[in-house]
Amino acid sequence: MADSETKQVTINIDGVEHRVPDGLNLVDACEGVGVEIPHYCYHPKLSVAGNCRMCLVEMGMPMRDRATGEPVLDDAGAPKIGWMPKPAIACASKAMPGLHIKTKSDLTKECREGVMEFLLVNHPLDCPICDQAGECRLQEFATDYGRGFSRFVEEKNVKPKRTKLGPRVILDDERCILCSRCVRFCEEIDENPVLGFTERGSHSTLSCFPGKQLDSNYSLNTVDICPVGALTSTDFRFKMRVWFLKPTPSICTESSVGVNTEVWTREGKIYRITPRRNDAVNDTWMTDSGRSLYQQVEAENRMKSFRVDGNKASLGEAVQRVRELLTVGPVAYVASGHMSVEDQWMLRKLAEAEPGAIHFVYHTGEGDGRLISKDKTPNLRGGLLTGLIKGIPDAHLHSLRDKLEAGEIKTIVSFGEDIVKAGISPELIKKANLVYFGALRDDCTDYAKVLLPALTVFERSGSFVNQQFRLQKFSQIVPGPAGLLPTTALLARLIGEITGQPATAPSNPQMWREIAAAVPQFSGVEFAKIPTTGLELDSSAFATLPFVEEKGWHFEPVAEPAGAQSSHH
Amino acid sequence: MAVKVVDRSPLNLWEKTYLPQVLGGLKITLDQMLKPKITLQYPEERPVIPNHYRGVPTLVRDPNGREKCVSCQLCEFVCPPKAIRITPGEISEDDEAAHVEKRPKDFEINMLRCIYCGMCQEVCPEEAIFLQDTYSVSGYSREELVYHKAKLYELGGTLPDQHYKWDRKKEAAEKAAAGGHH
């Protein structure tokens, strides 16, 4: 929504005039000016259902004389407001010129108390065990707008407590307030309608259609939008109360879409990942597969110590050994789209200090036309912008293999790229010296002369450039394993060894001053000032490149996707 | 400053024998010997602990033997010296208490940190933690003084329940399953 292009209108909320975008949903319009209208079923990215009735407010418009069309004035000369005899739901109303609403009147308060009372009639007293406690709309609105006591003495409904809706979602039916957000999500966003209500009245039950289950890769979004604790995530269920968790903004590394995320941690341990709203990238959604990526932090094959020739070594020894290996003979660097822009920049500086050919592997796979693109790395475009590569790289390292076979390369420095998987046999690797910067053990780490363990995306800060050429930064969320440094710091030290200059680890703002000066697309960018929703870069220089990405939720490919032109290669 | 003149007159013969002081002392001793004893022979003898004494925090079971804590972690949140640490856990579906769904996998209270303020007891929505009459805590190492779940239940024992919230919940579910109310 481009606010600057939308006409602003004046509406009157509780006697105060506000300028809001014309036609904006009244709930959002009020939120924009700091007035809360409580709501359960309304969600800005879903259709309006209007079934919870929590957003009832009093509405009125300036009266006009039917005969003349002239505004009717009261005795004081001010326009007379024709208040509707009954309250109306704000979520099904739009901001229009002259609209008057009352959100604090006695009638509005009574409406809210009544709605809350009905919702709580059959709601169980599960708060001590409910995962939603602490971020539960029902809890919040019960304290803010509820009556504060219960008049209900009858028996509460009994409904199933642990229905498995799918592999990742469990339903507690007693807690459901029938807002239908999840039903609408499956139908409208996921376009995979599997959920519906059965039975009537207070017996209404959320369930999957016969023979179906909630197994789409977007199923956990229903857990996010559930305003109560009815839908819970199997992975996060009963793990930690949310009031202990701290959300930190991050970027999903699943593919080049660059989904904006929030990572929830307590005392250095990650408990869950949820989407962060960005209307230009992922709206308020993310994939289920992206939510499990935090498990790499505590993966069994995580590398935690520096190794030289298979033996544990200190950071200094490892860097020294890399320095020696770089002087043995011609060097090849293998960069990756998993590196941040900062890592790639430092690699460029390393390649300037110790020249060598830079190889890059294109990781392509299946996309889903939504929030998973065909490029499986978050930052291929960073490689283009920092000048590591000039065009679309190959999906293999055959050119490097040919050079190795010819004995033209003595040392390979790989940055998290499994070169065995990329087509170089272990026998060939043994002919040269492999230096490996990476977080996890993989097929090539056994053949590496020097292993430098790297930090995962959750343990360092930096930035990626997604498929839209949108520069997005991520923050450090948890501390890394003891003794490990970001790749940028390791590279700075290595460059220091080569040039003989004192080597201090550069901070992101320092690096960005250099990057902004050197790369025209990045000119004027300051790291601290990259907005949380990202910064769109000028992509015109790369408009003709055959990227593999196809149309996604907020992405239109500029050039023909590579599949269409593969015969040219 | 006022000056107080102390009487320094020389002792007479009777006083010079020191006998009046010695006899006076013996009289006090004899008087006390004949009165009832007020000293407690701690630790063999223990004082009577008044009701609502704030001793060591403990976990309690309800009269049916079910552990009352559902690991809501409110005590962990409210604990001023951060002495409490809970690892929540799910109750499996074949368990007798399956309808409660959640209980602590482990419940640790660091008695070296605990300040006996009683806020955990005050905040507990399930009436599962009580500061009872244990007041003497000792151990040979720091680890020993971090009390785990088993020890806390052993100290806590069973307390009378006013509500039987979860029993009633189970009853309602059984009634519903049998085709009763709803």
Compact summary:
The complex is a heterodimer of chains A (569) and B (182). Chain A has 569 residues and is of the alpha+beta class. Chain A contains 14 helices and 24 strands.
Largest sheet of chain A: 7 strands, mixed
Strand percentage of chain B lies at: 5-15%
Spatial strand order of the main sheet of chain B: 2-3-5
Quaternary organisation: heterodimer
Specify Rg of chain B, calculated over alpha carbons. 29 Å
The overall average pLDDT of chain A, rounded, is 93
Q: How many individual helices of chain B?
A: 6
Poorly predicted segments of chain A: 563-569
Supply Rg of chain A: 29 Å
Give the strand tally of chain A. Answer: 24
Protein name (chain B): NADH-quinone oxidoreductase subunit I
Membrane topology (chain B): Peripheral membrane protein
Subunit structure (chain B): NDH-1 is composed of 14 different subunits. Subunits NuoA, H, J, K, L, M, N constitute the membrane sector of the complex.
Catalytic activity (chain B): a quinone + NADH + 5 H(+)(in) = a quinol + NAD(+) + 4 H(+)(out)
SSE topology sketch:
The complex is a heterodimer of chains A (569) and B (182).
Chain A (H helix, E strand, L loop, with lengths): L7 E6 L2 E6 L4 H7 L23 E7 L18 E3 L4 E2 L10 E3 L3 H16 L15 H9 L17 E2 L4 E3 L9 H9 L5 E4 L6 E4 L11 H6 L5 E3 L12 E6 L8 E7 L2 E7 L12 H4 L15 E2 L2 E2 L2 H12 L4 E5 L5 H13 L3 E4 L19 H6 L12 H8 L5 E5 L10 H6 L1 E6 L11 E4 L8 E4 L4 E5 L12 H13 L8 H11 L16 E2 L25 H4 L4
Parallel strand pairs in A: 1-6, 17-18, 17-19, 19-20, 20-21
Antiparallel strand pairs in A: 1-2, 3-4, 3-5, 3-6, 7-8, 8-11, 9-10, 12-13, 13-14, 15-16, 15-21, 22-23, 23-24
Helix pairs in contact in A: 2-3, 7-12, 8-12
Chain B lengths: L12 H4 L2 H16 L22 E3 L14 H5 L5 E7 L11 E9 L8 H5 L5 E3 L14 E2 L1 H8 L8 H13 L5
Antiparallel strand pairs in B: 1-4, 2-3, 3-5
Descriptive overview:
The complex is a heterodimer of chains A (569) and B (182). The two termini of chain A are 40 Å apart. Chain A has 14 helices and 24 strands. Chain A has 569 residues and is α+β, with helices and mostly antiparallel strands. In chain A, the strands form 6 sheets. Chain A has a 7-stranded mixed sheet. In chain A, strands 1, 2, 3, 4, 5 and 6 form a 6-stranded mixed sheet that branches. In chain A, strands 7-8-11 form a 3-stranded antiparallel sheet. The longest helix of chain A is centred in the first third of the chain and has 16 residues. The C terminus of chain A is likely disordered. Chain B has 182 residues and is an alpha+beta fold. Chain B has 6 helices and 5 strands; from the N terminus they run ααβαββαββαα. In chain B, the strands form 2 sheets. Chain B has a 3-stranded antiparallel sheet with strand order 2-3-5. The longest helix of chain B is centred in the N-terminal third of the chain and has 16 residues. Chains A and B meet through loops of A and helix 3, strand 2 and helix 6 of B.
